User: Which sequence fits this backbone?
């Protein structure tokens, strides 16, 4: 069971017990006090409070008791979404290439971070002089080679991404027009 309250500008203190889920068990019933009345409460109950006012301010106390979801759409995010849809419709192979490249670049960044962590762990485990430890030197060489390979692959994806960007630029005015229409 859900309740949607639209155009919320402030929260009535009568809702505090609901927001805090201050339930009581009385004779097998689950009750919650709203105002001066005890009413049956379902554990499946969810309340959604919505506002269209971007300047609406809520107290830190309220913020700690609820989950906020910001569905605001900025002009640049709308333009980006329009461009993505246009590319998908007009040049699906370019859109697929762009999506795949973004995924691969993300994976490369994650792998580089993992390599950095491995390097820090290896350096942390060194006892004595780093240059005398053959294990650490081998690990450093391996990590250096792997990081170099990943950086080369990232550079290759950057050149392909530039090509995709050139094609995307052709559709940018249309995406701008779409994002500005009301």
Assistant:
């Amino acid at each position: 069971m859900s309740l949607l309250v639209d155009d919320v500008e402030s929260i009535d203190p009568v809702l505090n017990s609901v927001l805090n889920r201050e339930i009581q068990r009385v004779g097998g019933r689950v009750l919650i006090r709203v105002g001066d009345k005890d009413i049956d409460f379902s554990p499946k109950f969810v309340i959604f409070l919505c506002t269209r006012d971007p300047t609406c301010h809520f107290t830190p106390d309220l913020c700690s008791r609820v989950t906020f979801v910001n569905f605001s759409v900025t002009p640049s995010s709308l333009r980006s979404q329009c461009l993505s849809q246009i590319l998908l419709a007009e040049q699906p192979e370019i859109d697929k290439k762009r999506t795949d490249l973004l995924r691969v670049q993300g994976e490369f960044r994650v792998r580089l971070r993992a390599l950095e962590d491995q390097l820090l762990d290896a350096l942390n485990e060194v006892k004595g002089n780093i240059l005398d430890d053959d294990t650490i030197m081998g690990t450093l060489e391996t990590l250096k080679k792997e990081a170099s390979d990943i950086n080369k692959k990232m550079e290759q994806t950057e050149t392909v991404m530039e090509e995709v960007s050139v094609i995307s630029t052709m559709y940018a005015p249309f995406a701008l027009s779409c994002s500005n229409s009301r």
Notes: The radius of gyration is 27 Å.
